[in-house]
Design brief:
- The chain is α+β, with helices and mostly antiparallel strands and 293 residues long.
- A five-stranded antiparallel β-sheet has the order 5-6-4-8-7. A four-stranded antiparallel β-sheet has the order 2-1-3-9.
- The termini are far apart.
- The N terminus is likely disordered.
């Protein structure tokens, strides 16, 4: 395999790039992760406007991102070696600390078990499959893609479509099909979490001007990415929720597209991370005040 000239062979990023190219050769869409196991931020062309990459909302066409660099988190994942080794990705590989992949893009589902209690539950409940050890638990990898849902139970996340997982090695065991019990975990039961209070109003549409988002798909994708940002927060949940609310309102808050259902989705994601309804209300109100809405 020819090493691209954009990264020296003795540079630490060289081994990450080689790993990414090897995984891509087996059909895994890959992307670099920076410190904190986080994807790289949106490129300048995409920052501050609705996502333009990643396929249709139903995720059948998820990835690769159409931007030249690794943009839009999981949607940046690609198995195209000419993109992975391109000069546009070189700076990201120089800063990267590990390689991740988009399980759903490869037709896979990862059951992420975050602690020993979750691992014990899986061993008693789930059918055997390929297992990859992690720092604190295990990844159980199944054939077949499905929707991704965090915190389906204590210490258990499901990562498939519209998500990414760290590459931690090939693991051991024979991969089997996603069992019904895992698919059932992703089915949301009727929520007991309070949604957005009715006192929080959505800005009215200004006159008859055309919505700048053109189609509901842009808004739906933006809300989904905001939900993912909140649910993946491992620390500083309060500030993450506020910054996410601020980002949603700065993009979608002035055209009248946001509905109570959209706001409720964001509040539900925040409360699932431990935020109280009062915290959600305060964060939303403060974000609106910050933007003058």
């Amino acid at each position: 395999m020819t090493q691209p000239a954009v990264i020296r062979r003795d540079h630490p990023a060289s081994s990450l790039l080689r790993t990414a190219l090897e995984l891509a050769a087996f059909g895994l869409p890959v992307l670099p992760l920076r410190r904190g196991k986080m994807p790289f931020g949106n490129c300048r062309a995409c920052a501050g406007r609705p996502p333009a990459c990643g396929g249709r909302p139903n995720m059948k066409d998820a990835g690769p991102c159409q931007c030249p660099g690794p943009c839009h988190a999981w949607a940046a994942a690609t198995a195209d070696p000419s993109v992975i080794a391109s000069p546009a990705w070189a700076s990201a590989w120089r800063e990267a600390v590990t390689v991740a992949y988009h399980p759903g893009g490869a037709g896979l589902t990862v059951v992420d078990l975050d602690d020993t209690a979750a691992v014990a539950w899986a061993r008693e409940t789930l059918p055997a499959t390929r297992i990859v050890p992690t720092t604190r638990g295990e990844h159980w990898i199944y054939r077949g893609a499905m929707r991704s849902v965090n915190a389906v139970r204590d210490g258990v996340d499901i990562k498939s479509t519209m998500a990414y997982a760290r590459w931690l090695g090939p693991g051991t065991g024979t991969m089997t099909a996603v069992p019904d019990i895992v698919r059932a975990l992703a089915v949301k039961e009727p929520s007991t979490v309070r949604s957005a209070p009715q006192a929080i109003t959505v800005p009215a549409r200004a006159g008859d001007r055309e919505c700048p988002h053109r189609t509901p798909a842009y808004l739906d994708r933006g809300i989904a990415m905001a939900e993912q940002r909140i649910t993946e927060a491992r620390s500083a949940v309060h500030s993450t929720v506020y910054r996410t609310f601020l980002a949603v309102l700065s993009t979608h808050g002035r055209c009248g597209c946001l509905t109570e259902d959209h706001i409720a989705r964001l509040f539900t994601a925040a409360q699932a991370k431990g935020e109280t309804p009062r915290h959600c209300t305060d964060a939303w109100t403060n974000a609106r005040a910050k933007l003058g809405l």
